[in-house]
Protein backbone atom coordinates (compact mmCIF):
# COMPACT_ATOMS: atom_id res chain seq x y z
CA UNK A 1 0.00 0.00 0.00
CA UNK A 2 1.45 3.37 -1.02
CA UNK A 3 0.97 6.77 0.63
CA UNK A 4 -1.96 8.83 -0.60
CA UNK A 5 -1.82 12.57 -0.14
CA UNK A 6 -4.88 14.60 0.80
CA UNK A 7 -4.76 18.32 0.01
CA UNK A 8 -6.71 20.82 2.12
CA UNK A 9 -7.06 23.02 -0.95
CA UNK A 10 -6.09 22.62 -4.59
CA UNK A 11 -2.28 22.89 -4.45
CA UNK A 12 -1.96 24.30 -7.96
CA UNK A 13 -1.54 28.07 -7.85
CA UNK A 14 -0.94 29.96 -11.13
CA UNK A 15 2.06 32.24 -11.45
CA UNK A 16 1.28 35.86 -10.60
CA UNK A 17 2.50 36.89 -14.03
CA UNK A 18 -0.60 35.31 -15.60
CA UNK A 19 -2.88 37.56 -13.58
CA UNK A 20 -0.67 40.60 -14.21
CA UNK A 21 -1.00 40.13 -17.97
CA UNK A 22 -4.80 40.15 -17.63
CA UNK A 23 -4.81 43.26 -15.41
CA UNK A 24 -2.38 45.22 -17.61
CA UNK A 25 -3.91 44.25 -20.98
CA UNK A 26 -4.50 47.39 -23.06
CA UNK A 27 -7.12 45.94 -25.41
CA UNK A 28 -9.51 43.05 -25.75
CA UNK A 29 -7.22 40.81 -27.86
CA UNK A 30 -4.40 41.08 -25.29
CA UNK A 31 -6.85 40.39 -22.44
CA UNK A 32 -8.33 37.45 -24.35
CA UNK A 33 -4.91 35.86 -24.90
CA UNK A 34 -3.87 36.34 -21.25
CA UNK A 35 -7.14 34.88 -19.90
CA UNK A 36 -7.00 32.03 -22.42
CA UNK A 37 -3.45 31.16 -21.23
CA UNK A 38 -4.77 31.08 -17.64
CA UNK A 39 -7.62 28.75 -18.67
CA UNK A 40 -5.18 26.42 -20.44
CA UNK A 41 -3.01 26.33 -17.29
CA UNK A 42 -6.00 25.24 -15.16
CA UNK A 43 -7.07 22.79 -17.90
CA UNK A 44 -3.68 21.06 -17.79
CA UNK A 45 -3.71 20.80 -13.99
CA UNK A 46 -7.37 19.72 -13.79
CA UNK A 47 -8.73 22.70 -11.81
CA UNK A 48 -12.32 22.23 -12.97
CA UNK A 49 -14.00 25.16 -11.16
CA UNK A 50 -11.31 27.57 -12.37
CA UNK A 51 -11.76 26.38 -15.97
CA UNK A 52 -15.52 26.95 -15.77
CA UNK A 53 -15.22 30.33 -13.99
CA UNK A 54 -12.67 31.92 -16.33
CA UNK A 55 -14.32 30.25 -19.35
CA UNK A 56 -17.67 31.85 -18.52
CA UNK A 57 -16.06 35.22 -17.89
CA UNK A 58 -14.10 35.21 -21.15
CA UNK A 59 -17.14 33.95 -23.10
CA UNK A 60 -19.27 36.87 -21.82
CA UNK A 61 -16.56 39.41 -22.69
CA UNK A 62 -16.09 37.94 -26.17
CA UNK A 63 -19.84 37.89 -26.86
CA UNK A 64 -20.02 41.65 -26.17
CA UNK A 65 -17.13 42.50 -28.55
CA UNK A 66 -17.37 43.07 -32.32
CA UNK A 67 -14.52 41.68 -34.41
CA UNK A 68 -13.78 39.31 -37.28
CA UNK A 69 -13.97 35.54 -36.61
CA UNK A 70 -15.82 36.15 -33.32
CA UNK A 71 -17.85 32.93 -33.80
CA UNK A 72 -14.63 30.89 -33.95
CA UNK A 73 -13.50 32.21 -30.55
CA UNK A 74 -16.95 31.59 -29.02
CA UNK A 75 -17.00 28.03 -30.38
CA UNK A 76 -13.60 27.31 -28.81
CA UNK A 77 -14.66 28.76 -25.43
CA UNK A 78 -17.96 26.84 -25.50
CA UNK A 79 -16.07 23.58 -25.96
CA UNK A 80 -13.70 24.45 -23.09
CA UNK A 81 -16.58 25.23 -20.71
CA UNK A 82 -18.42 22.06 -21.83
CA UNK A 83 -15.37 19.88 -21.12
CA UNK A 84 -15.16 21.35 -17.63
CA UNK A 85 -18.86 20.60 -17.01
CA UNK A 86 -18.39 17.06 -18.36
CA UNK A 87 -15.37 16.47 -16.11
CA UNK A 88 -17.47 17.60 -13.13
CA UNK A 89 -20.30 15.19 -14.00
CA UNK A 90 -22.80 17.87 -15.07
CA UNK A 91 -23.88 16.08 -18.25
CA UNK A 92 -26.88 18.25 -19.14
CA UNK A 93 -24.85 21.44 -18.68
CA UNK A 94 -22.02 19.94 -20.78
CA UNK A 95 -24.51 19.07 -23.55
CA UNK A 96 -25.80 22.66 -23.54
CA UNK A 97 -22.32 24.14 -24.05
CA UNK A 98 -21.25 21.61 -26.70
CA UNK A 99 -24.42 22.48 -28.64
CA UNK A 100 -23.58 26.18 -28.29
CA UNK A 101 -20.11 25.51 -29.70
CA UNK A 102 -21.61 23.68 -32.69
CA UNK A 103 -24.09 26.52 -33.28
CA UNK A 104 -21.24 29.06 -33.34
CA UNK A 105 -19.42 26.92 -35.97
CA UNK A 106 -22.41 26.39 -38.27
CA UNK A 107 -20.81 28.37 -41.13
CA UNK A 108 -17.60 26.32 -40.88
CA UNK A 109 -18.77 22.72 -40.27
CA UNK A 110 -15.34 21.26 -41.08
CA UNK A 111 -13.12 23.36 -38.79
CA UNK A 112 -11.40 21.95 -35.70
CA UNK A 113 -13.70 23.61 -33.12
CA UNK A 114 -16.78 22.17 -34.82
CA UNK A 115 -15.27 18.64 -34.67
CA UNK A 116 -14.01 19.18 -31.11
CA UNK A 117 -17.52 20.08 -29.93
CA UNK A 118 -19.00 17.21 -31.96
CA UNK A 119 -16.71 14.72 -30.19
CA UNK A 120 -17.88 16.06 -26.82
CA UNK A 121 -21.49 15.95 -27.98
CA UNK A 122 -21.10 12.30 -28.96
CA UNK A 123 -19.65 11.39 -25.55
CA UNK A 124 -22.44 13.14 -23.61
CA UNK A 125 -25.17 11.62 -25.78
CA UNK A 126 -23.71 8.14 -25.26
CA UNK A 127 -23.51 8.65 -21.49
CA UNK A 128 -27.14 9.81 -21.49
CA UNK A 129 -28.15 6.56 -23.26
CA UNK A 130 -28.57 7.88 -26.82
CA UNK A 131 -27.09 5.43 -29.35
CA UNK A 132 -26.43 8.17 -31.91
CA UNK A 133 -23.51 9.31 -29.71
CA UNK A 134 -21.33 6.46 -30.95
CA UNK A 135 -22.12 7.24 -34.62
CA UNK A 136 -21.21 10.92 -34.06
CA UNK A 137 -17.76 9.99 -32.71
CA UNK A 138 -17.14 7.53 -35.55
CA UNK A 139 -17.95 10.31 -38.05
CA UNK A 140 -15.54 12.67 -36.24
CA UNK A 141 -12.68 10.18 -36.75
CA UNK A 142 -13.25 10.41 -40.51
CA UNK A 143 -13.80 14.20 -40.58
CA UNK A 144 -11.10 15.30 -38.11
CA UNK A 145 -9.00 18.15 -39.61
CA UNK A 146 -5.88 17.20 -37.59
CA UNK A 147 -4.27 14.14 -36.00
CA UNK A 148 -4.82 15.30 -32.39
CA UNK A 149 -8.61 15.48 -32.79
CA UNK A 150 -8.64 12.20 -34.71
CA UNK A 151 -6.88 10.37 -31.86
CA UNK A 152 -9.02 12.11 -29.24
CA UNK A 153 -12.04 10.65 -31.05
CA UNK A 154 -10.34 7.22 -31.21
CA UNK A 155 -9.77 7.35 -27.44
CA UNK A 156 -13.45 8.22 -26.80
CA UNK A 157 -14.52 5.35 -29.07
CA UNK A 158 -12.29 3.08 -26.97
CA UNK A 159 -14.22 4.25 -23.88
CA UNK A 160 -17.51 3.32 -25.60
CA UNK A 161 -16.27 -0.17 -26.52
CA UNK A 162 -15.12 -0.62 -22.90
CA UNK A 163 -18.60 0.32 -21.65
CA UNK A 164 -20.18 -2.07 -24.17
CA UNK A 165 -18.09 -5.00 -22.87
CA UNK A 166 -15.76 -5.32 -25.90
CA UNK A 167 -12.27 -5.10 -24.31
CA UNK A 168 -10.34 -6.14 -27.43
CA UNK A 169 -11.83 -3.34 -29.54
CA UNK A 170 -11.31 -0.94 -26.66
CA UNK A 171 -7.61 -1.89 -26.40
CA UNK A 172 -7.18 -1.51 -30.17
CA UNK A 173 -8.47 2.08 -30.13
CA UNK A 174 -6.66 3.05 -26.92
CA UNK A 175 -3.38 1.67 -28.36
CA UNK A 176 -3.70 3.85 -31.47
CA UNK A 177 -4.42 6.92 -29.35
CA UNK A 178 -1.57 6.25 -26.89
CA UNK A 179 1.05 5.74 -29.60
CA UNK A 180 0.17 9.17 -30.99
CA UNK A 181 0.06 10.87 -27.56
CA UNK A 182 3.47 9.47 -26.57
CA UNK A 183 5.12 10.32 -29.90
CA UNK A 184 3.78 13.90 -29.84
CA UNK A 185 4.45 14.54 -26.13
CA UNK A 186 0.85 14.68 -24.82
CA UNK A 187 1.75 13.35 -21.36
CA UNK A 188 -1.60 13.86 -19.62
CA UNK A 189 -3.57 12.22 -22.44
CA UNK A 190 -1.16 9.26 -22.52
CA UNK A 191 -1.55 8.75 -18.73
CA UNK A 192 -5.36 8.94 -19.04
CA UNK A 193 -5.18 6.20 -21.68
CA UNK A 194 -3.02 4.07 -19.35
CA UNK A 195 -5.69 4.41 -16.66
CA UNK A 196 -8.24 2.91 -19.10
CA UNK A 197 -5.83 0.03 -19.72
CA UNK A 198 -5.73 -0.45 -15.94
CA UNK A 199 -9.54 -0.71 -15.87
CA UNK A 200 -9.45 -3.28 -18.67
CA UNK A 201 -6.85 -5.36 -16.79
CA UNK A 202 -9.11 -5.21 -13.69
CA UNK A 203 -12.03 -6.54 -15.77
CA UNK A 204 -9.77 -9.36 -17.01
CA UNK A 205 -8.87 -10.25 -13.37
CA UNK A 206 -5.19 -9.39 -13.99
CA UNK A 207 -5.11 -7.64 -10.63
CA UNK A 208 -1.35 -7.29 -10.07
CA UNK A 209 -0.83 -5.84 -13.55
CA UNK A 210 -3.80 -3.51 -13.04
CA UNK A 211 -2.42 -2.26 -9.71
CA UNK A 212 1.06 -1.65 -11.17
CA UNK A 213 -0.30 0.34 -14.11
CA UNK A 214 -2.72 2.38 -11.97
CA UNK A 215 0.01 3.19 -9.44
CA UNK A 216 2.17 4.35 -12.36
CA UNK A 217 -0.62 6.73 -13.47
CA UNK A 218 -1.19 7.80 -9.86
CA UNK A 219 2.48 8.67 -9.20
CA UNK A 220 3.10 10.26 -12.60
CA UNK A 221 -0.06 12.40 -12.30
CA UNK A 222 0.99 13.63 -8.86
CA UNK A 223 4.54 14.49 -10.00
CA UNK A 224 3.15 16.37 -13.04
CA UNK A 225 0.44 18.11 -10.96
CA UNK A 226 -2.40 16.52 -12.96
CA UNK A 227 -4.61 16.50 -9.87
CA UNK A 228 -7.94 15.45 -11.37
CA UNK A 229 -6.22 12.47 -13.05
CA UNK A 230 -4.50 11.74 -9.71
CA UNK A 231 -7.94 11.55 -8.03
CA UNK A 232 -9.37 9.37 -10.82
CA UNK A 233 -6.47 6.93 -10.46
CA UNK A 234 -7.18 6.80 -6.72
CA UNK A 235 -10.82 5.91 -7.41
CA UNK A 236 -9.78 3.05 -9.73
CA UNK A 237 -7.26 1.74 -7.16
CA UNK A 238 -9.94 1.87 -4.46
CA UNK A 239 -12.31 -0.19 -6.62
CA UNK A 240 -9.57 -2.76 -7.31
CA UNK A 241 -9.01 -3.16 -3.54
CA UNK A 242 -12.78 -3.54 -3.08
CA UNK A 243 -12.79 -6.30 -5.71
CA UNK A 244 -9.96 -8.03 -3.79
CA UNK A 245 -11.92 -7.60 -0.50
CA UNK A 246 -9.02 -5.53 0.90
CA UNK A 247 -11.48 -3.18 2.57
CA UNK A 248 -9.06 -1.30 4.82
CA UNK A 249 -6.82 -0.21 1.93
CA UNK A 250 -9.94 0.62 -0.08
CA UNK A 251 -11.24 2.84 2.74
CA UNK A 252 -7.88 4.61 3.08
CA UNK A 253 -7.46 5.58 -0.57
CA UNK A 254 -11.17 6.33 -1.22
CA UNK A 255 -11.33 8.56 1.87
CA UNK A 256 -8.37 10.55 0.51
CA UNK A 257 -10.01 10.84 -2.91
CA UNK A 258 -13.26 11.93 -1.26
CA UNK A 259 -11.52 14.69 0.75
CA UNK A 260 -9.70 16.00 -2.34
CA UNK A 261 -12.81 15.92 -4.55
CA UNK A 262 -14.83 17.88 -1.97
CA UNK A 263 -12.11 20.55 -1.73
CA UNK A 264 -11.77 20.78 -5.52
CA UNK A 265 -15.51 20.70 -6.27
CA UNK A 266 -15.36 17.67 -8.60
CA UNK A 267 -18.84 16.16 -8.09
CA UNK A 268 -18.32 13.16 -10.39
CA UNK A 269 -15.14 11.99 -8.61
CA UNK A 270 -16.79 12.70 -5.22
CA UNK A 271 -19.84 10.61 -6.17
CA UNK A 272 -17.70 7.65 -7.25
CA UNK A 273 -15.59 7.84 -4.07
CA UNK A 274 -18.73 7.92 -1.86
CA UNK A 275 -20.18 4.88 -3.68
CA UNK A 276 -16.95 2.94 -3.10
CA UNK A 277 -16.73 3.96 0.58
CA UNK A 278 -20.37 3.07 1.18
CA UNK A 279 -19.73 -0.39 -0.27
CA UNK A 280 -16.55 -0.87 1.83
CA UNK A 281 -18.33 0.07 5.09
CA UNK A 282 -21.28 -2.19 4.27
CA UNK A 283 -18.98 -5.14 3.50
CA UNK A 284 -17.24 -4.72 6.90
CA UNK A 285 -20.55 -4.49 8.79
CA UNK A 286 -20.33 -0.76 9.53
CA UNK A 287 -23.96 -0.10 8.55
CA UNK A 288 -24.13 3.21 10.41
CA UNK A 289 -21.40 4.80 8.26
CA UNK A 290 -22.76 3.07 5.15
CA UNK A 291 -26.17 4.64 5.75
CA UNK A 292 -24.61 8.07 6.38
CA UNK A 293 -22.68 7.83 3.09
CA UNK A 294 -25.92 6.86 1.34
CA UNK A 295 -27.42 10.12 2.60
CA UNK A 296 -24.37 12.05 1.34
CA UNK A 297 -24.73 10.40 -2.08
CA UNK A 298 -28.35 11.53 -2.29
CA UNK A 299 -27.27 15.11 -1.52
CA UNK A 300 -24.63 14.99 -4.28
CA UNK A 301 -27.19 13.72 -6.81
CA UNK A 302 -29.66 16.43 -5.78
CA UNK A 303 -26.89 19.04 -6.12
CA UNK A 304 -26.20 17.85 -9.67
CA UNK A 305 -29.90 18.04 -10.53
CA UNK A 306 -30.15 21.60 -9.20
CA UNK A 307 -27.24 22.75 -11.39
CA UNK A 308 -28.62 21.26 -14.57
CA UNK A 309 -30.69 23.45 -16.88
CA UNK A 310 -32.69 20.98 -18.94
CA UNK A 311 -35.03 23.48 -20.59
CA UNK A 312 -32.20 25.36 -22.29
CA UNK A 313 -30.52 22.08 -23.22
CA UNK A 314 -33.68 20.90 -25.00
CA UNK A 315 -33.98 24.20 -26.87
CA UNK A 316 -30.36 24.05 -28.03
CA UNK A 317 -30.72 20.40 -29.05
CA UNK A 318 -33.69 21.34 -31.24
CA UNK A 319 -31.57 24.09 -32.83
CA UNK A 320 -28.74 21.60 -33.38
CA UNK A 321 -31.02 19.06 -35.00
CA UNK A 322 -32.50 21.80 -37.21
CA UNK A 323 -28.98 22.80 -38.27
CA UNK A 324 -28.07 19.18 -39.06
CA UNK A 325 -31.28 18.74 -41.06
CA UNK A 326 -30.55 21.88 -43.08
CA UNK A 327 -27.01 20.70 -43.83
CA UNK A 328 -28.28 17.24 -44.74
CA UNK A 329 -30.90 18.73 -47.06
CA UNK A 330 -28.25 20.85 -48.79
CA UNK A 331 -25.95 17.85 -49.21
CA UNK A 332 -28.74 15.68 -50.56
CA UNK A 333 -29.87 18.44 -52.91
CA UNK A 334 -26.37 18.85 -54.40
CA UNK A 335 -25.89 15.10 -54.68
CA UNK A 336 -29.25 14.63 -56.43
CA UNK A 337 -28.46 17.33 -59.00
CA UNK A 338 -25.07 15.76 -59.78
CA UNK A 339 -26.56 12.28 -60.07
CA UNK A 340 -29.35 13.52 -62.31
CA UNK A 341 -26.92 15.28 -64.70
CA UNK A 342 -24.65 12.25 -64.76
CA UNK A 343 -27.43 9.85 -65.59
CA UNK A 344 -28.86 12.12 -68.29
CA UNK A 345 -25.44 12.40 -69.95
CA UNK A 346 -24.51 8.73 -69.67
CA UNK A 347 -27.69 6.75 -70.25
CA UNK A 348 -31.29 7.91 -69.88
CA UNK A 349 -32.83 4.36 -69.90
CA UNK A 350 -30.98 3.61 -66.64
CA UNK A 351 -33.43 5.97 -64.92
CA UNK A 352 -36.29 3.72 -66.00
CA UNK A 353 -34.51 0.64 -64.61
CA UNK A 354 -33.79 2.41 -61.34
CA UNK A 355 -37.43 3.46 -61.03
CA UNK A 356 -38.58 -0.13 -61.52
CA UNK A 357 -36.06 -1.34 -58.97
CA UNK A 358 -37.22 1.36 -56.51
CA UNK A 359 -40.85 0.23 -56.95
CA UNK A 360 -39.79 -3.34 -56.23
CA UNK A 361 -37.98 -2.29 -53.04
CA UNK A 362 -41.02 -0.33 -51.90
CA UNK A 363 -43.26 -3.36 -52.45
CA UNK A 364 -40.85 -5.62 -50.53
CA UNK A 365 -40.63 -3.08 -47.69
CA UNK A 366 -44.41 -2.87 -47.38
CA UNK A 367 -44.67 -6.68 -47.41
CA UNK A 368 -42.03 -6.95 -44.69
CA UNK A 369 -43.78 -4.37 -42.52
CA UNK A 370 -47.12 -6.14 -42.96
CA UNK A 371 -45.57 -9.50 -41.97
CA UNK A 372 -43.91 -7.95 -38.90
CA UNK A 373 -47.21 -6.35 -37.80
CA UNK A 374 -49.05 -9.68 -38.14
CA UNK A 375 -46.36 -11.42 -36.07
CA UNK A 376 -46.53 -8.72 -33.40
CA UNK A 377 -50.30 -9.09 -33.18
CA UNK A 378 -49.97 -12.88 -32.82
CA UNK A 379 -47.39 -12.51 -30.05
CA UNK A 380 -49.55 -9.91 -28.26
CA UNK A 381 -52.60 -12.19 -28.44
CA UNK A 382 -50.55 -15.13 -27.09
CA UNK A 383 -49.22 -13.08 -24.18
CA UNK A 384 -52.71 -11.85 -23.30
CA UNK A 385 -54.01 -15.43 -23.42
CA UNK A 386 -51.25 -16.57 -21.04
CA UNK A 387 -51.94 -13.66 -18.68
CA UNK A 388 -55.66 -14.51 -18.62
CA UNK A 389 -54.86 -18.15 -17.80
CA UNK A 390 -52.60 -17.06 -14.91
CA UNK A 391 -55.23 -14.66 -13.54
CA UNK A 392 -57.94 -17.32 -13.87
CA UNK A 393 -55.78 -19.90 -12.05
CA UNK A 394 -55.01 -17.39 -9.28
CA UNK A 395 -58.68 -16.46 -8.81
CA UNK A 396 -59.69 -20.12 -8.82
CA UNK A 397 -57.09 -20.86 -6.13
CA UNK A 398 -58.34 -17.97 -3.99
CA UNK A 399 -61.96 -19.13 -4.44
CA UNK A 400 -61.12 -22.70 -3.37
CA UNK A 401 -59.19 -21.42 -0.34
CA UNK A 402 -62.17 -19.24 0.72
CA UNK A 403 -64.53 -22.24 0.35
CA UNK A 404 -62.21 -24.38 2.50
CA UNK A 405 -62.01 -21.72 5.27
CA UNK A 406 -65.80 -21.20 5.15
CA UNK A 407 -66.35 -24.96 5.44
CA UNK A 408 -64.04 -25.18 8.45
CA UNK A 409 -65.79 -22.24 10.15
CA UNK A 410 -69.27 -23.65 9.48
CA UNK A 411 -68.77 -27.36 10.12
CA UNK A 412 -66.26 -27.41 12.98
CA UNK A 413 -66.19 -24.09 14.82
CA UNK A 414 -69.84 -23.23 14.07
CA UNK A 415 -71.04 -26.65 15.27
CA UNK A 416 -69.08 -26.39 18.52
CA UNK A 417 -70.38 -22.88 19.23
CA UNK A 418 -73.98 -24.04 18.61
CA UNK A 419 -73.58 -26.89 21.13
CA UNK A 420 -72.04 -24.52 23.71
CA UNK A 421 -74.98 -22.11 23.22
CA UNK A 422 -77.55 -24.90 23.84
CA UNK A 423 -75.79 -25.99 27.02
CA UNK A 424 -75.61 -22.42 28.33
CA UNK A 425 -79.35 -21.90 27.61
CA UNK A 426 -80.31 -25.07 29.55
CA UNK A 427 -79.15 -24.32 33.10
CA UNK A 428 -80.68 -27.49 34.42
CA UNK A 429 -78.44 -29.77 32.42
CA UNK A 430 -75.34 -27.51 32.45
CA UNK A 431 -72.16 -29.59 32.91
CA UNK A 432 -69.15 -27.36 33.65
CA UNK A 433 -66.42 -29.87 32.74
CA UNK A 434 -68.09 -30.80 29.44
CA UNK A 435 -68.56 -27.10 28.60
CA UNK A 436 -64.88 -26.30 29.32
CA UNK A 437 -63.81 -29.23 27.16
CA UNK A 438 -65.89 -28.00 24.19
CA UNK A 439 -64.57 -24.40 24.56
CA UNK A 440 -61.02 -25.74 24.61
CA UNK A 441 -61.74 -27.83 21.51
CA UNK A 442 -63.12 -24.75 19.71
CA UNK A 443 -60.03 -22.71 20.69
CA UNK A 444 -57.74 -25.38 19.22
CA UNK A 445 -59.74 -25.43 15.98
CA UNK A 446 -59.37 -21.61 15.64
CA UNK A 447 -55.64 -21.83 16.42
CA UNK A 448 -55.12 -24.60 13.83
CA UNK A 449 -57.01 -22.60 11.17
CA UNK A 450 -54.90 -19.45 11.78
CA UNK A 451 -51.68 -21.48 11.59
CA UNK A 452 -52.78 -22.96 8.28
CA UNK A 453 -53.16 -19.45 6.86
CA UNK A 454 -49.45 -18.68 7.52
CA UNK A 455 -47.12 -20.14 4.78
CA UNK A 456 -45.48 -23.30 6.05
CA UNK A 457 -41.90 -22.22 5.37
CA UNK A 458 -42.24 -19.24 7.75
CA UNK A 459 -43.30 -21.61 10.55
CA UNK A 460 -40.65 -24.28 9.97
CA UNK A 461 -37.49 -22.24 9.14
CA UNK A 462 -35.66 -19.11 10.29
CA UNK A 463 -36.56 -16.03 8.25
CA UNK A 464 -32.92 -15.24 7.38
CA UNK A 465 -32.49 -18.81 6.12
CA UNK A 466 -35.59 -18.47 3.90
CA UNK A 467 -34.30 -15.20 2.38
CA UNK A 468 -30.78 -16.62 1.81
CA UNK A 469 -32.09 -19.85 0.21
CA UNK A 470 -34.40 -17.88 -2.11
CA UNK A 471 -31.53 -15.66 -3.30
CA UNK A 472 -29.22 -18.68 -3.71
CA UNK A 473 -31.85 -20.29 -5.96
CA UNK A 474 -32.09 -17.11 -8.05
CA UNK A 475 -28.27 -16.90 -8.37
CA UNK A 476 -28.09 -20.38 -9.90
CA UNK A 477 -30.48 -19.30 -12.69
CA UNK A 478 -29.07 -15.81 -13.44
CA UNK A 479 -25.81 -14.40 -14.76
CA UNK A 480 -25.82 -11.43 -12.37
CA UNK A 481 -23.64 -11.46 -9.24
CA UNK A 482 -26.04 -11.17 -6.26
CA UNK A 483 -24.67 -10.40 -2.78
CA UNK A 484 -26.90 -10.45 0.32
CA UNK A 485 -25.89 -9.15 3.77
CA UNK A 486 -28.14 -9.70 6.82
CA UNK A 487 -27.28 -8.26 10.25
CA UNK A 488 -28.02 -9.00 13.03
CA UNK A 489 -29.65 -12.31 12.13
CA UNK A 490 -31.09 -13.03 15.59
CA UNK A 491 -33.10 -9.79 15.73
CA UNK A 492 -34.35 -10.19 12.15
CA UNK A 493 -35.45 -13.80 12.82
CA UNK A 494 -37.51 -12.57 15.81
CA UNK A 495 -39.58 -9.92 13.97
CA UNK A 496 -43.35 -10.45 13.75
CA UNK A 497 -44.65 -13.05 11.30
CA UNK A 498 -46.66 -10.60 9.16
CA UNK A 499 -43.52 -8.46 8.67
CA UNK A 500 -41.56 -11.53 7.55
CA UNK A 501 -44.15 -12.33 4.87
CA UNK A 502 -44.27 -8.74 3.57
CA UNK A 503 -40.46 -8.30 3.55
CA UNK A 504 -40.02 -11.61 1.73
CA UNK A 505 -42.50 -10.52 -0.99
CA UNK A 506 -40.84 -7.07 -1.24
CA UNK A 507 -37.42 -8.68 -1.83
CA UNK A 508 -39.01 -10.95 -4.45
CA UNK A 509 -40.54 -7.95 -6.27
CA UNK A 510 -37.30 -5.89 -6.20
CA UNK A 511 -35.14 -8.79 -7.41
CA UNK A 512 -37.61 -9.70 -10.18
CA UNK A 513 -37.66 -6.10 -11.45
CA UNK A 514 -33.84 -5.83 -11.39
CA UNK A 515 -33.32 -9.12 -13.27
CA UNK A 516 -36.00 -8.17 -15.79
CA UNK A 517 -35.11 -4.53 -16.55
CA UNK A 518 -31.80 -3.35 -14.99
CA UNK A 519 -29.26 -5.22 -17.20
CA UNK A 520 -26.96 -5.17 -14.17
CA UNK A 521 -23.75 -7.11 -13.52
CA UNK A 522 -24.03 -6.89 -9.72
CA UNK A 523 -26.92 -6.60 -7.25
CA UNK A 524 -26.32 -5.86 -3.54
CA UNK A 525 -29.02 -6.49 -0.89
CA UNK A 526 -28.55 -5.35 2.73
CA UNK A 527 -31.10 -6.21 5.45
CA UNK A 528 -30.44 -4.85 8.92
CA UNK A 529 -32.03 -3.60 12.15
CA UNK A 530 -30.99 -0.08 13.15
CA UNK A 531 -32.59 2.48 15.49
CA UNK A 532 -35.63 0.23 16.12
CA UNK A 533 -36.30 0.01 12.35
CA UNK A 534 -35.79 -2.57 9.65
CA UNK A 535 -33.50 -1.19 6.89
CA UNK A 536 -33.61 -2.77 3.42
CA UNK A 537 -31.02 -1.35 0.97
CA UNK A 538 -31.28 -2.68 -2.61
CA UNK A 539 -28.64 -1.52 -5.14
CA UNK A 540 -27.74 -2.50 -8.72
CA UNK A 541 -25.18 -1.18 -11.25
CA UNK A 542 -27.53 -1.46 -14.22
CA UNK A 543 -28.87 0.99 -16.79
CA UNK A 544 -30.95 2.96 -14.26
CA UNK A 545 -33.70 5.29 -15.47
CA UNK A 546 -34.85 8.91 -15.53
CA UNK A 547 -37.35 9.29 -12.68
CA UNK A 548 -38.92 12.31 -14.37
CA UNK A 549 -39.75 10.38 -17.54
CA UNK A 550 -40.43 6.77 -16.48
CA UNK A 551 -43.97 5.88 -15.40
CA UNK A 552 -44.06 3.42 -12.49
CA UNK A 553 -45.81 0.15 -13.25
CA UNK A 554 -47.96 -2.30 -11.34
CA UNK A 555 -44.93 -3.89 -9.61
CA UNK A 556 -43.84 -0.67 -7.90
CA UNK A 557 -47.45 0.21 -6.99
CA UNK A 558 -47.83 -3.23 -5.33
CA UNK A 559 -44.56 -2.53 -3.48
CA UNK A 560 -45.86 0.82 -2.20
CA UNK A 561 -49.18 -0.79 -1.16
CA UNK A 562 -47.34 -3.45 0.86
CA UNK A 563 -45.19 -0.81 2.58
CA UNK A 564 -48.31 1.21 3.39
CA UNK A 565 -49.81 -1.74 5.32
CA UNK A 566 -46.66 -2.00 7.49
CA UNK A 567 -46.12 1.80 7.72
CA UNK A 568 -42.86 1.62 5.72
CA UNK A 569 -41.14 4.33 3.67
CA UNK A 570 -39.33 3.99 0.34
CA UNK A 571 -36.72 6.24 -1.33
CA UNK A 572 -35.63 5.61 -4.94
CA UNK A 573 -32.36 7.04 -6.27
CA UNK A 574 -31.91 6.36 -10.00
CA UNK A 575 -30.26 8.04 -13.00
CA UNK A 576 -29.67 6.82 -16.56
CA UNK A 577 -26.51 4.61 -16.80
CA UNK A 578 -25.73 5.04 -13.10
CA UNK A 579 -27.68 2.16 -11.61
CA UNK A 580 -30.52 2.22 -9.09
CA UNK A 581 -30.57 2.43 -5.28
CA UNK A 582 -33.76 1.68 -3.33
CA UNK A 583 -33.79 2.48 0.41
CA UNK A 584 -36.69 1.02 2.46
CA UNK A 585 -37.33 1.80 6.16
CA UNK A 586 -39.94 -0.15 8.22
CA UNK A 587 -40.53 0.73 11.91
CA UNK A 588 -40.60 -2.20 14.34
CA UNK A 589 -43.07 -0.54 16.73
From TrEMBL:
<keyword id="KW-0812">Transmembrane</keyword>
<dbReference type="Pfam" id="PF02518">
    <property type="entry name" value="HATPase_c"/>
</dbReference>
<keyword id="KW-0418">Kinase</keyword>
<dbReference type="InterPro" id="IPR003594">
    <property type="entry name" value="HATPase_dom"/>
</dbReference>
<protein>
    <recommendedName>
        <fullName>histidine kinase</fullName>
        <ecNumber>2.7.13.3</ecNumber>
    </recommendedName>
</protein>
<dbReference type="Pfam" id="PF07730">
    <property type="entry name" value="HisKA_3"/>
</dbReference>
<dbReference type="InterPro" id="IPR050482">
    <property type="entry name" value="Sensor_HK_TwoCompSys"/>
</dbReference>
<keyword id="KW-0547">Nucleotide-binding</keyword>
<keyword id="KW-0597">Phosphoprotein</keyword>
<dbReference type="InterPro" id="IPR036890">
    <property type="entry name" value="HATPase_C_sf"/>
</dbReference>
<feature type="coiled-coil region">
    <location>
        <begin position="290"/>
        <end position="333"/>
    </location>
</feature>
<keyword id="KW-0472">Membrane</keyword>
<feature type="domain" description="Histidine kinase">
    <location>
        <begin position="404"/>
        <end position="589"/>
    </location>
</feature>
<dbReference type="InterPro" id="IPR011990">
    <property type="entry name" value="TPR-like_helical_dom_sf"/>
</dbReference>
<dbReference type="InterPro" id="IPR019734">
    <property type="entry name" value="TPR_rpt"/>
</dbReference>
<keyword id="KW-0902">Two-component regulatory system</keyword>
<dbReference type="InterPro" id="IPR011712">
    <property type="entry name" value="Sig_transdc_His_kin_sub3_dim/P"/>
</dbReference>
<dbReference type="GO" id="GO:0016301">
    <property type="term" value="F:kinase activity"/>
</dbReference>
<keyword id="KW-1133">Transmembrane helix</keyword>
<keyword id="KW-0175">Coiled coil</keyword>
<keyword id="KW-0067">ATP-binding</keyword>
<feature type="transmembrane region" description="Helical">
    <location>
        <begin position="337"/>
        <end position="358"/>
    </location>
</feature>
<keyword id="KW-0808">Transferase</keyword>
<dbReference type="InterPro" id="IPR005467">
    <property type="entry name" value="His_kinase_dom"/>
</dbReference>
Amino acid sequence: MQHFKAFGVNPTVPNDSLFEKIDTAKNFKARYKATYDLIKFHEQKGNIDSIIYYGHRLYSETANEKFLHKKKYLSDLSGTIAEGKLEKGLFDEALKWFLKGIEHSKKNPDDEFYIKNRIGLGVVKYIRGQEEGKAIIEACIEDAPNEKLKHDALSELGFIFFMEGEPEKAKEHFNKAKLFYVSEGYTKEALATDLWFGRILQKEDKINEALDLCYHVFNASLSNSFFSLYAKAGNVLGNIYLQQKDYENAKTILSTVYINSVQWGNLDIERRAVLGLQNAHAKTGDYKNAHALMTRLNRINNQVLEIQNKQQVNELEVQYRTLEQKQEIERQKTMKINILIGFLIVLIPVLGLLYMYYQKLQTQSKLTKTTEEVNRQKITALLKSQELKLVKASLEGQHNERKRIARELHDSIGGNLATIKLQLSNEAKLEKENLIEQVDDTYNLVRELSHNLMPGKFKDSAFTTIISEYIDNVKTLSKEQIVVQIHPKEEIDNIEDHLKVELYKIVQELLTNALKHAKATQIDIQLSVFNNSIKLLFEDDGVGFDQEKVKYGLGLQNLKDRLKTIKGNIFINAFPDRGTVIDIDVPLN
